[in-house]
Amino acid sequence: MKDMLDTFIHETESMLEQLDEILLESERARSISDENISSIFRITHTIKGSGAMMGFEEISNVSHAVEDVFYILRDEPQSLGRVFDTIFDLVFQTSDFLKRELEKLHEEDYTAGNPEGLITRLHEQVRVLKGEDGGTAAPAPKQAPAPTYAANGETYTIHVVFEDDCQMENMRAYMLMTQLQHCCDELSSVPPHPETDPSYSEEIVKNGFTVHCRPSRSIDAVCKVIEGALNIKTYEVTQARKQPVQAVAQAATPNAPSSARQPEGEAPAAALDGGKTGMGLMKSAKQSLISVNQSKLDHLMDLVGEIVTAESMVARNPDLDGLKLDNFNKSFRELRKLTDELQDIVMSVRMVPLQSTFNKMDRIVRDMSKKLGKKVELVTEGGDTEVDKTINDAIVDPFMHMIRNSMDHGVELPEERLALGKPETARIFLSARNVGGEILIEVSDDGRGLNAEALLAKASKNGLLTKPASAYTEKEAFGLIMMAGFSTNTEVTEFSGRGVGMDVVRKNVEQVGGAISISSVK
After folding, report:
1. Strand runs (DSSP E) across 351-476, as ranges?
2. pLDDT in tens, 290-320
3. 352 has which bridge partners?
């Protein structure tokens, strides 16, 4: 059960990251594409199904409420216009609620939060989109194009292969079936009802998972759902010639290849696109990736370290002095080469790009902009720069503190910026790059900057100076903001004023071998 819970948490966190990225991108553009609407629908539908499967009713219910909103928007995207901001705020709030629930799932005495207020507001937006709110009805949807395949009732057989060692294949097959329900009029599988028997996992690993379906619109929609699902390595689509789904399901046997699963007397199923890869005969859904518990990576790193140490001890063993060991030396050089390669690979496995951390900062800027009444754009560069997972985890909080400080202290209100001749929208810059074997990360903004005299005056008032104010250089004055208890805010707010933050930033960065430098230009 713990493995299932860990998998659920990890996969839901990944989907919520994807959800936030789509929302932020669409909100900046003030429009949302049909593809992104479908992606949000699939994400919330998947979380709803997996949450229900795990018994987390609140997670399932609130996800279902968002799914209902985007179910309507798939057919009537133009109806979003008048409630754009309201719906986006509600979906962001749903994302936050789900993240809090996932955090609490790590606790032994988990108590679910109450999403009823959020669900009620989402249901209100469903009524608005349907034109049932007493106002102007939503515009009539555009005439849908004629289905490309389903109009004639074609049925398809889809053979799915899951990624190696993804675990719980039977539950993943079940989740895929729940996602396909919304785009298929008829649906069955081999093995049937995979969620009912854990032993089906072995069968799916050995033979794959076969889906028989009659799409409600087109096979394209079915393929999109499969490509959006997690842990699918490849899938194969074949078209049956007007053969009912039920008959195909009865004729199919777990051990038979897809090409052989035809009722007697029927022609073989036709491969889509004449067997070409496109919607293709055999299609790779996504790059094969697996998730590994970090503790296993840490243990692997320790073992590699021990191997390197043992190798060095062998090389320096005094018992070998003066011996002519040509074959031994040749073998040892090969061993060292392999050990070095092993060490490099293990190190690279622990490396993760900073982009996911940058994306979290984008969300903070968005939320604080709304609360503070400021217009701010986050500009990022070097998100593909990779750092060790431990370092990445350690710098998330420092990033958050520095971004909040820029938003609260550095960036001016729009009217102030206009009066100073600045653009109304401020910019915060977040960049990362490799410099001489080290990672340089910079956080900057085009706000009011730091005032050394004001910092010294505040520090003097709080009794934090260790020498006369006149003896401090500008750089030393800037460094005062890293002292515990220091804050330039005169009142406590939601974001600052408690004097807790920048000293924690310094400690966290130093704990992973980093250092902080501060500069300001007026």
Report:
1. 351-353, 376-381, 386-388, 426-435, 438-445
2. 667 778 888 898 999 999 899 888 888 888 8
3. 387
Give bridge partners of residue 238 from the DSSP assignment: 157, 271
- pLDDT interval class at 147 (50, 70, 90): very low
Assigned CATH topology for domain 353-511: Heat Shock Protein 90 (3.30.565)
Question: Cα(180)–Cα(186) distance, rounded to whole angstroms?
Answer: 10
For residue 367, give both structure tokens.
């939320």
Identify the CATH assignment for 2-130 out of 2.60.40.1120, 3.40.50.10790, 3.90.1310.10, 1.20.120.160. 1.20.120.160
Q: How many CB atoms lie within 10 A of CB 200?
A: 23
Helix (H) or strand (E) holding 236: strand 232-240
For 390-396, which contacts have Cβ atoms below 8 Å and span 24 or more sequence positions? Answer: 390/350, 390/512, 391/439, 391/512, 391/514, 392/352, 392/354, 392/357, 394/508, 394/509, 394/511, 394/512, 395/357, 395/441, 395/508, 395/509, 395/512, 395/514, 396/357, 396/360
Q: Which two structure tokens, joined as six digits, stand for 507?
A: 């400690």
Per the DSSP assignment, residues forming a β-bridge with 433 are: 440
In 3-state terms the chain splits into helix, strand, coil percentages (rounded to 5) of 55, 15, 30
Which residues of the chain does CATH 3.30.70.1110 include?
150-284
Q: And the tokens for 268?
A: 């073989």
Q: How far is the C-alpha of 330 from the C-alpha of 48, rounded, in Å?
A: 59
43 close to 18: Cβ distance less than 8 angstroms: yes
Would residue 426 be called left, alpha or beta, if left means φ above 0 and alpha means ψ between -120 and 50 degrees?
beta
Under DSSP, the state recorded for 408 is I
Cα-flanking dihedrals φ and ψ of residue 212, to 5°? -110, 130
Task: Fill in the amino acid letter for 282.
Answer: M
Q: What is the pLDDT of residue 484?
A: 78
Six-digit token pair at 199? 């032993």
Query: Alpha-carbon torsion 9, 15, 17, 23, what sign?
Result: negative
